[in-house]
Design a protein that fits this description.
Structural class: alpha/beta
Number of strands: 8
Distance between the termini: 36 Å
Order of helices and strands: HHHEEHHEEEEHHEEHHH
Shape: globular
Largest sheet: 6 strands, mixed
Oligomer: single chain
Radius of gyration: 19 Å
Length: 287
């Protein structure tokens, strides 16, 4: 289903999971939060709003049924789901069987599951990923998040934080982006490793900012290819974000073609893409 951009379609998106039942209207506070999320979506300007993700079940599927589907599909990838999160500095809530939560979990699974299924066999086992945490209302040190790596519990975390207000393919990009942070930590035991091989690929004069966390809460728009060597504006916030952004654009079908087009006349970006393709290939069963 396509993501909505306006609060006027809130009821149709969030409450359609309850077939033949007229649900209560969302509160004014929730509607305002939905509109704010839509306006602050960092991928809004680079979104193809025509990209659709198929539902994983019928609209009237319960949370228990959706969880069973997720469990089976993740098991085929040698992964298991977790439905709660207990980590210092982080907070999240579990899905309930409300109409709103059923619709939110359906949308989250429709993006996360096919995104994970795009990976070659063996990648998750070779990087030590064991669990996918699926929750709502995720925050990290008070900052609202849609996803985060959690290598300390062998997990990546994905959340429905008013996701229906946001770019669907932008959420898939985040799925891959955060998984790359997980991979990086497994490779170097450090989220912020300043990889000399990567830094050597940058054009002269490339400068990084103070880390991705400094982009939050500012209405930031993640524009594509702002300068040679950088796939996106967010990539400029740090070498760790640069790597994760190239990886995310590379793995997300709605963005991969643009990345490929840019690499045709940007040798630095081409070299970065190739380096990450080599990392991914080295973690597959067929390597």
């Amino acid at each position: 289903m396509p993501a909505c951009r306006l609060p006027s379609c809130l009821a149709a998106v969030l409450l359609s999971a309850c077939a033949n039942v007229v649900p209560p209207a969302p509160s004014a506070a929730y509607t305002q939060a939905f509109e704010r999320a839509a306006q602050q979506d960092s991928m809004r300007s680079e979104c193809d709003w025509d990209v659709r993700y198929a539902p994983v079940a019928s609209q009237d599927a319960s949370v228990a049924q959706l969880q069973a589907i997720a469990t089976a599909r993740l098991a085929a990838m040698q992964l298991s789901p977790a439905w709660t999160l207990a980590m210092p500095g982080s907070e999240a809530h579990a899905f309930t069987d409300s109409a709103q939560d059923r619709a939110g979990l359906q949308l989250l699974l429709s993006i996360v599951l096919p995104a994970m299924e795009r990976y070659p066999a063996g990648v998750f086992a070779r990087t030590g990923l064991r669990h996918v945490v699926l929750v709502k209302d995720l925050s990290v040190e008070g900052q609202r998040r849609l996803a985060m790596p959690a290598p300390e519990i062998d997990s990546v975390v994905y959340a429905d934080n008013l996701l229906a207000a946001m770019c669907p393919s932008g959420m898939e990009l985040r799925v891959h982006h955060e998984y790359y942070h997980f991979i990086e930590y497994r490779l170097f035991d450090d989220f912020y490793y300043r990889d000399p091989a990567w830094l050597a690929l940058n054009p002269p004069g490339t400068a990084y900012g103070q880390g991705g966390a400094t982009a939050y809460g500012k209405g930031f728009q993640n524009l594509g290819h702002p300068q040679p060597g950088l796939v996106s504006l967010y990539a400029a916030y740090g070498p760790e974000e640069d790597k994760a952004e190239v990886f995310g654009w590379m793995l997300t079908p709605a963005y991969a073609l643009r990345l490929q087009q840019w690499t045709a006349f940007d040798p630095a970006l081409l070299a970065k893409r190739q380096l990450l393709m080599d990392v991914l290939s080295s973690k597959t069963d067929s390597y």
